[in-house]
Design goal:
The protein has 664 residues and is α/β, with parallel strands linked by helices. The protein folds into four domains: 4-229, 3-Layer(aba) Sandwich (Rossmann fold); 237-374, 3-Layer(aba) Sandwich (Rossmann fold), CATH 3.40.50; 392-568, Rossmann fold (3-Layer(aba) Sandwich), CATH 3.40.50.970; 576-663, Alpha-Beta Plaits (2-Layer Sandwich), CATH 3.30.70.20. Helices cover 38% and strands 18% of the residues. The protein is built from 22 helices and 25 strands. The longest helix has 21 residues, at 209-229. It is globular. The mean pLDDT is 93.
């Protein structure tokens, strides 16, 4: 898919990632204000809007965190502008304080909030089920199962939001966000962005005391109206699958399935593999749940299977409806033990469960296949996650290791970011890792109770997202905590988005750069050490030691631009990467570069010498500072056989080929 299809004016059929289709349909719906904090699996929504803002008249921000992003779009909606935000499941925890209150106050123009769950925790610290936010907050919630439905539901959400003066939630999962399908896009008919006057707004958005009690009463009435409005919604569909394809209307059946989202796709494929016919209730409105349709579906099927990932959300409503109606019908799902509350599903899992329920054999021996895969995988070398070549964190942690010698006298409280890999082998330095900003709160509590020094590690984006209250706490109470702040100038782990520590704003333009040192000084941190992580690495150890030995709050700021971000821009500007190489005559096989630095560009050659892969090396020169024999050098010091100094990877590789020919 090309980005041009997201922004083109003409209607037509095109191929899109779901996250891109969500942007396209929001633009078609004339969205005027969007705000986000990045986080997989919904980051592409942010990234696509960031490109689209260069072509359309709307306003965009990357908020300091999800709560701020939600409040931003809610404020825009209160003022009469259609708005949208999206966030990953755990980000909704951060935004939930505002979310629950906004359910009370309501909104004016359409306001849509997408919550992207991450079953299997592909890129999250927990498997969280965001469906309960709609139920607990009394907010409508929709769930698509494919790309086209996701786009359609965005438009429906805007319409419903304005009709009911309510934020509308859309819940997705990783396998829906990252689907790609053919979608039908409509004509792009947008209106100019025009500011309104708040004085024209007769609504008040207040929740406190008596106002809150009144709002809660009105909210329950509103949900009853929404339930009535959506009782016959086409988003909730009962279909018949004849064992080969979706075919006609539902029939009086032996077997029925109830599902939502991506599990519908798994059911269709599994039933096709097994050649089993069944009725399927595909729920598109998670809240209010379509209880009447569930009851009708139960009455037309002799046994029902509920297929949903994570918690038994739908299953609990199905069982409640059956019990209230006195219907004695077998209901299979998590309660029966056929499906797990953990991890994400796939066709083999769903098909195996269906086969067991129907006393059939699966169409394929999935268990044997998985065993064979595991047996083959067991003979392969482990592939551990590593920092990118040229990552500034690698040098900082090397200096930290020099400074403390051993971790036995340090409690390391880690945070969320690329540096979270500290908790994995071979570093294995993290004693705690919970959620965004928790490093400081945990460290503050631990330092009361242990003899070791408490050290909290955080990135710059996390610093602004959730660490500021923890710093206030540490400084006010004069806790003996050292903060290590890894400033790489972007939100690196989610795709190098901008954050308050740089001047660039989302979509271009200049904002105010917040300098971390000044923020810390303003908050009362007296001991602050900072250094450039790429320069004179070994000297940083003494500086780190000084900060750790300080009694009371102290901070270490390590400056070093994210390698992916830096070299992407560097190459776009015409820059050429100059790799390093190992002088085989000087290499004494000490392997200080490999054992202590663990850069993916470094390995051991057939002759036992260290070697550097030129196509991976970015020329940062960090490893050259570690070699006790000075065996690691820049290729810029080499002279090509006929082209002068080597200044690019291509020239170095050409030079290597030339040397092979000379040796022959």
């Amino acid at each position: 898919m090309a980005f041009k299809d997201v922004i083109r004016k003409e209607p037509g059929l095109t191929y899109m990632l779901t996250n891109e289709a969500i942007v396209r349909y929001a633009l078609e719906a004339d969205v005027k204000v969007v705000s986000f904090y990045p986080g997989a699996p919904q980051t592409e929504i942010l990234d696509t809007f960031e490109e689209a803002v260069k072509h359309f008249d709307f306003r965009m921000e990357i908020g300091a965190n999800e709560k701020v992003a939600l409040e931003t779009v809610a404020g825009a909606s209160m003022a009469g502008q259609r708005s949208l935000t999206s966030m990953k499941s755990v980000g909704t925890n951060v935004a939930s304080d505002a979310l629950f209150s906004l359910a009370y106050t309501g909104v004016k123009a359409g306001c849509v909030c997408l919550i992207a769950d991450d079953p299997y925790a592909h890129s999250s610290q927990t498997e969280q089920d965001g469906r309960w936010f709609g139920y607990l907050a009394y907010l409508p919630m929709l769930e698509p199962s494919n790309t086209q439905e996701a786009g359609d539901m965005v438009k429906e959400a805007f319409r419903l939001s304005e009709e009911m003066h309510s934020i509308v939630l859309i819940r997705t999962t990783t396998r829906v966000n990252h689907q790609s399908n053919m979608v039908t896009i409509n004509e792009m008919a947008r209106t100019p962005f025009v500011k309104t006057s708040w004085k024209q707004n007769v609504d008040k958005y207040v929740t406190v005391g008596a106002k809150a009690r009144e709002a809660k009463f009105l909210l329950t009435k509103k949900m009853a109206e929404i339930s009535k409005r959506l009782s016959d919604s086409p988003l909730n569909k009962i279909i018949y699958f004849d064992g080969n394809a979706i075919s006609g209307s539902p029939v009086e059946g032996e077997l029925g399935f109830i599902c939502a989202g991506v599990t519908f796709n798994y059911i269709i494929e599994a039933l096709g593999n097994l050649g089993i016919a069944a009725n399927i209730l595909k729920i598109g409105v998670l809240n209010p749940i379509p209880e009447d349709k569930i009851r009708a579906f139960l009455s037309h099927n002799k046994k029902v299977v509920v297929v949903e990932e994570l918690l038994p959300y739908i299953e609990s409503f199905v069982k409640s409806a059956a019990q209230e109606d006195g219907r004695q019908i077998p209901i299979y799902g998590k309660g029966s033990g056929h499906f797990s509350e953990s991890l994400e599903y796939n066709v083999p899992i769903v098909e195996t469960a269906i086969a067991k329920i129907m006393a059939r054999q699966p169409s394929f021996d999935y268990d044997a296949h998985v065993k064979k895969m595991n047996d083959l995988a067991s003979i392969l070398p482990a592939r551990l996650p590593v920092f990118c070549a040229g990552c500034p964190h690698r040098a900082t942690f090397y200096a930290l290791r020099l400074a403390v010698g051993s971790t036995k006298n340090i409690f390391f409280s880690n945070d969320i970011g690329c540096y979270s890999m500290m908790c994995l082998d071979p570093v294995n330095w993290s004693d705690s890792l919970l959620c965004m900003g928790s490093s400081l709160g945990i460290a503050a509590g631990v330092q009361f109770s242990i003899q070791e020094k408490a050290v909290a590690v955080m990135g710059d984006s996390t610093f602004f997202h959730a660490c500021l209250p923890g710093i206030v706490n540490v400084v006010h109470n004069q806790d003996d905590v050292t903060m290590i702040i890894l400033e790489n100038y972007v939100t690196a782990m989610t795709g190098q988005q901008s954050q308050p520590g740089i001047s660039e704003k989302a979509g271009g333009g200049q904002g105010k750069k917040l300098e971390i040192r000044k923020v810390l000084e303003g908050m009362g941190v007296e001991k602050i050490i900072e250094f450039d992580t790429f320069k004179d690495i070994k000297s940083h150890a003494a500086m780190i030691r000084e900060a750790i030995e300080f009694k009371g709050p102290s901070a270490i700021i390590s400056h070093g631009e994210c390698a992916l971000h830096h070299f992407r821009n560097y190459r776009r500007d015409g820059g050429k990467v100059v790799p390093f190489y190992v002088d085989g005559e000087k290499c004494e096989k000490r392997y200080a570069c490999i054992n202590n630095f663990m850069c993916p560009a470094l390995s051991i050659s057939d002759n036992g010498k260290a070697t550097i892969a030129a196509d991976i090396c970015v020329g940062c020169g960090e490893c050259a500072q570690l070699c006790p024999h000075g065996a690691i050098k820049s290729t810029s010091t080499l002279k090509s056989y006929d082209k002068g100094p080597i200044t690019t990877i291509e020239q170095y590789e050409d030079y290597q080929e030339h040397l092979k020919g000379v040796k022959k």
